[in-house]
Specification:
Blueprint lengths: L2 H10 L5 E5 L3 E7 L7 E5 L16 E20 L8 E8 L3 H4 L16 E6 L4 E4 L4 E12 L4 E12 L13 H17 L14 E2 H12 L5 H13 L10 E3 L5 E2 L6 H18 L2 H18 L27 H21 L3 H22 E2 L4 E2 L9 H9 L5 H13 L9 H13 L3 H17 L35 H7 L3
Antiparallel strand pairs: 1-9, 2-3, 2-4, 4-7, 4-8, 4-9, 5-6, 5-8, 10-11, 11-12, 13-14
Length: 509
């Protein structure tokens, strides 16, 4: 099958979008608070009279709290206090996921990505009264409104948000959940819901596209929550529809204004994990047709890079480009090879299911060879941990992927994770993406208590900081950490790869 057939199949799987109206729950103001995330929190203002019974003149400012993060469009119903309007009304709007984005809205930013991702707008309206719906989609909990110009006092008869997602309602907690677990589950579901639009987005604020690595984790959480497999299949078909010239699967694709791929964007670890995504989806749905259609795509990713591992470990001078985590100093080579072995195991399962016995046996033999070479060449017996790269770096990422790839198993895997925890000089994760894989590694090693302890500590810290969705980057004592320059306002506060709690809390072991 080619691009046209895959795109057509993707369109038949379009989940549709549900929309609902949400009104603000309170007027708030920003308050400096050293205990709050990034030093700011919102404080509710006393309710003197309804917003529709108040009027505002030039220079007026107000902040509305909608109670939870939502994705959609803002709708304003406005009129002048008098019966005429002899010049336009001009408003400045700032849409915020975190209080910092409003509190420091006027500070000049330093970003490595486009500043157009900052969600602020100036709107000029000629006619009063009118109901105006902003054309752009925003991800926000708070909206700042500044009346920049108005010929007469302005009345906001209604301010509402037209929220949208492929799903609307969150599931109730499972029986036996503690209050803390129930809240983590709810926040994780909300995070995933906001990312379920035409495809599984990475983040609804930034950068609003389908990433293969994120999709694999979203598929896990979706399977135990909303179970909307149509959007998963649409996402899979779109990824397969836009290969690079040599057959590499792109790390990301867009679905708007019409589907297209990013042919310059490839990440080896994401490509190797495609086989696992397919097998997991088959286990949940029994859709063997999709598995058969996608097998050549998944197999191609290993055919293209098998030469990199013919000697067992990659060339330290020419490592494959992978993501693994946002950590700047991380040596990724061993972790990426772990992804290769992990994915190859799943490709062998798919081959056996499809009756391709010889291919399955070849994949399994390759796995055994690589496992032996990784143990021989990359395990430091003095440290009791795996090392990566020319400098023999010790990182959590390497240990996590050696467990997930089953290079070490059983009690040996559990001991490896224990040594990793106790190691002081080790490169640690900075994103919930790698923390999700740490939870997976704990499960593979039979360390359920360790998994639950880490989940409650890491994601629980986010909730304690006031988050009602889970962010792209989180290191508790580095609140201004960003991969994109020096300004965390560009970070995504709602990011799909962070929704792990709903999966691991609901999973049965």
């Amino acid at each position: 099958m080619g691009k046209r057939e895959f795109v057509e199949k993707a369109e038949r799987c379009h989940p549709g979008v549900r929309r609902w109206k949400v009104r603000p729950v309170s007027l708030v103001k920003t308050v400096r608070d050293p205990e709050a995330w990034q030093g700011w929190r919102m404080q509710a203002l006393p309710s003197r009279k309804p917003l529709a019974e108040r009027s505002f003149q030039k220079g007026a400012r107000l902040i509305l709290d909608f109670g939870e993060e939502l994705v959609g469009r803002l709708q304003l119903t406005l009129r002048s206090e008098t019966n005429f309007n002899d010049s336009p009304v001009r408003l400045r709007l700032v849409f915020a996921e975190f209080p910092l984005e409003i509190a420091e809205r006027n500070r000049k930013g330093s970003f490595t990505l486009s500043s157009a991702w900052i969600q602020d707008e100036i709107v000029t309206l000629d006619d009063m009264p009118q109901t105006y719906t902003l054309p752009r989609i925003y991800a926000m909990r708070y909206v700042y409104i500044e009346v920049m110009a108005t010929p007469n006092r302005l009345v906001f008869e209604e301010v509402c948000f037209l929220a949208q997602s492929a799903v609307r309602d969150l599931l109730p907690p499972l029986p036996g959940f503690s209050p803390e677990e129930a809240e983590l589950d709810r926040v994780a579901q909300r995070t995933l819901r906001n990312c379920m639009q035409g495809v599984m987005l990475d983040g609804p604020k930034r950068d609003r596209r389908l990433w293969l690595g994120d999709l694999r984790l979203e598929a896990q959480v979706n399977a135990l929550t909303f179970r909307r497999f149509d959007i998963i299949e649409r996402s899979i078909y779109l990824l397969a529809a836009f290969p690079m010239e040599d057959g590499r699967i792109p790390a990301c694709v867009f679905d708007r204004p019409e589907p297209y791929g990013v042919r310059s964007c490839f990440l080896a670890d994401y490509a190797f994990l495609f086989a696992d995504l397919l097998w997991f989806h088959y286990e949940q749905t029994g859709n063997g047709t999709l598995l058969q259609e996608m097998y050549p795509v998944a197999k191609k990713q290993f055919d293209l890079f098998r030469h990199c591992y013919e000697k067992g470990v990659p060339d330290a001078d020419r490592p494959l480009k992978g993501f693994i985590d946002w950590c700047a100093e991380l040596d990724r080579s061993v972790a990426v090879e772990g992804c290769y072995v992990f994915g190859l195991r799943k490709l062998a399962k798919i081959a056996r299911f499809l009756g391709k016995k010889k291919e399955a046996e070849a994949f399994e033999a390759e796995v055994e060879f690589l496992v032996g070479e990784l143990k021989k060449r990359c395990f430091d017996s003095n440290a009791g941990l795996f090392v990566s790269g020319k400098n023999r770096q010790i990182s959590c990422a390497s240990q996590i992927w050696m467990v997930l790839a089953e290079v070490v198993v059983g009690d040996e895997a559990a001991r490896l994770l224990g040594r990793m925890d106790r190691m002081e000089q080790i490169v640690r994760p900075v994103t919930p993406y790698l923390h999700h894989h740490l939870l997976e590694a704990c499960c593979v090693a039979g360390e359920r208590e360790r998994m639950m302890e880490h989940l409650l500590r890491y994601w629980g810290a986010m909730v304690k900081k006031g988050m009602n969705v889970f962010p792209e980057v989180f290191v508790e004592n580095q609140e201004f950490l960003t991969p994109y320059g020096q300004d965390p306002r560009i970070n995504s506060a709602c990011h799909a790869w962070s929704c792990a709690p709903a999966y691991f809390l609901r999973r049965r072991f």
